[in-house]
Write a structure and sequence with these properties.
The chain is α/β, with parallel strands linked by helices. It contains 11 helices and 7 strands. It has a single domain, classed as Rossmann fold (3-Layer(aba) Sandwich). About 45% of the residues lie in helices and about 15% in strands. The chain binds nicotinamide-adenine-dinucleotide (NAD). Nicotinamide-adenine-dinucleotide binds next to α1 and α8.
Length: about 260
């Protein structure tokens, strides 16, 4: 039995991941705003630190995996604070616990990173300065209709961060990878407005071609559990697109 920590495990992809891990007989710890084993607001420094402290208190001998899944696609400041800092700070905050058990980390990015919408200036600020207050001050007046460009930026920066960390973490026995989901049937996509839904439906998902169906949360949970598990021992620093082939369809000439 291994100890898996999942953020945002009360709903959607995170809930399916927790369910699958439990079916496999593992101990899981869900950190979420509500309904978690640990309730914490990971969009705040205090919430992250409280969750990190609690994990150290509960598991002084270490944990086997940290799955940084919690994320939102509405509210630009929340997107910045939760999607990027809520994932990177949590992962770094439990690195010592992962190291104790030769564990691994999976961060949940998005296949929007491959679709050209990400604000690369924001990506640069996140990856190279990581100054949360400064970035929040810069984005505070942006029109909420541009939220998707900030969403894609946080997910791009998160995937790049994971790749940047992977060599030095790997050398210390801890793997880190990212999954990049396509559109998945969860609370996040249920709340899309009519225009957003048209845009989503316009993106073909080859494995579901013609059916109008989004990805199933199970598809993501299986990929996340694999990447986090010892079966993926040789996989480090990878961004795994779990989007039914949409990225390959749109970017087939880009091999790496
Ligand atoms: N659904 C999709 O189509 C899709 C596509 C690409 C990427 N993703 C990413 O997958 C991840 C999971 O998304 P989902 O679709 O399952 O969403 P969801 O809305 O079903 O679940 C998100 C979970 O995060 C929790 N959460 C929200 N704010 C929080 C906070 N401040 N602190 C702690 N927990 C908080 C929620 O309570 C919820 O349990 C996200 O990072 C999302 O960006 C989703």
């Amino acid at each position: 039995m291994s100890i898996y920590v999942v953020t945002g495990g009360s709903s959607g992809i995170g809930a399916k991941t927790v369910e699958l891990l439990k079916e496999c007989g593992h101990e899981t710890v869900n950190i979420d705003l509500n309904g978690g084993d640990i309730n914490a607001n990971l969009a705040t420094k205090e919430g992250r630190q409280a969750a990190i402290d609690e994990l150290h208190r509960r598991y002084p001998d270490g944990i086997d995996a940290m799955i940084c899944n919690a994320g939102v696609n509405r509210n630009i400041p929340l997107i910045i604070s939760l999607n990027y800092f809520g994932a990177t700070q949590m992962a770094m905050g439990v690195f010592d616990l992962l190291k104790k058990r030769g564990g691994s980390c999976v961060v949940v990015s998005s296949n929007t990173i491959a679709q050209g919408a990400a604000r690369m200036d924001v990506v640069g600020m996140l990856n190279n300065q990581a100054d949360e207050e400064r970035i929040l001050a810069l984005v505070k007046d942006y029109d909420r209709r541009t939220a998707h460009t900030f969403y894609a930026a946080t997910k791009y920066a998160l995937a790049r961060w994971a790749r940047r960390m992977s060599a030095s973490w790997g050398a210390q026995g801890v793997r880190i990878n990212a999954v990049a989901p396509g559109n998945v049937r969860t609370a996040m996509t249920d709340q899309l407005g009519p225009q957003e839904r048209v845009a989503v439906d316009a993106l073909p998902v080859p494995i579901n071609y013609g059916s109008g169906a989004l990805m199933d949360p199970n598809d993501l949970a299986n990929a996340i559990v694999f990447l986090a598990s010892p079966q993926a021992h040789g996989v480090n620093g990878v961004v795994l697109f779990v989007d039914g082939g949409t990225d390959a369809l749109l970017n087939s000439e880009k091999v790496y």
